[in-house]
Structure prediction request, 273 residues.
Amino acid sequence: MSLQGKKIGFIGAGAMAEALLTGIVKAGLTQPENLCASDVSQERLAHLTDKLGVRKVESNNQLSTESEIIILAVKPQVVSGVLEDIRQVVKPGQVVVSIAAGITISTMEAILGQPVAVVRVMPNTPCLVGAGASALALGTHAGFAEESAVSAILGAVGKVVTIKENLLDSVTGLSGSGPAYMYVILEAFADAGVKVGLPRDVALTLAAQTMLGAAKMVLETGEHPGKLKDMVTTPGGTTINGLYALEKGNLRYTLMKAVKKAAERSAEMSKQV
Ligand SMILES: NC(=O)c1ccc[n+]([C@@H]2O[C@H](COP(=O)([O-])OP(=O)(O)OC[C@H]3O[C@@H](n4cnc5c(N)ncnc54)[C@H](OP(=O)(O)O)[C@@H]3O)[C@@H](O)[C@H]2O)c1
Prediction:
């Protein structure tokens, strides 16, 4: 689905809305005059208008009346209240997208109380630098057109996959929480460089670029990471000695356990929202 000419509104003009709006404008998905935002903070709205030419709208209801795609970019604890407000003006034919963690599709559909297309998204923080990893799940009344529209928006700030909603807690454990695991690995990797004599800044640059490069190799060659690893591992060489130490330190088990724990916590928290 082309987004050209589509009216897209963001309720909540915070960090995530800014990242997505920047991606939409940069990719030219639709003209800035078709983009609008509402927020309790006039300062945030003024910032988005100045930076991106996005129209500011006085209320969430006005935004919901005018927009074909309504993106809820507020904190999870605010989502139900916002939906209660806008339900009077939202009509079938519009698409309501939530990027808030833990608010289920059935909760949103029940509050809206009409056959409106709902899409639930789990993005991650690297969306802020155009390298996000997001997953979307479609509600009862959402189909191919809504999937391709929301995929195009998220695709402007990174990679996006479509999954069943019951896997969103797993996505939260993997790519939602994942940047924090990668930061810890990177910090340790840079410390290791310092341990073997490199200056701190040099070690961090080499460590971060190595992580980025390895990830690009996997994404761009489509090769299995095990094969790429084997390609740089010569018999009795440096790399196999490093890998031997990693296996002894249980890196694989530790990462699997981290993702499992985070996914379990996400499921627990969804029940509490
Ligand atoms: N940041 C991330 O990387 C990330 C990753 C995954 C998921 N998410 C999800 O994305 C959502 C947005 O996150 P964020 O980091 O962009 O949050 P944020 O920076 O706090 O932005 C939310 C904005 O919405 C405003 N707001 C609060 N109540 C409102 C209302 N009733 N109507 C309109 N606007 C209202 C907030 O104002 P006040 O600050 O004055 O309350 C704030 O400016 C959250 O649900 C978060 O869980 C974010």
About this structure: The longest strand covers residues 132-138. The chain has two domains: 8-170, 176-272. Residues 11-17, 38-41, 44, 60, 73-76, 78, 82, 99-101, 123-125 surround NAP (CB under 6 Å). The mean pLDDT is 96.
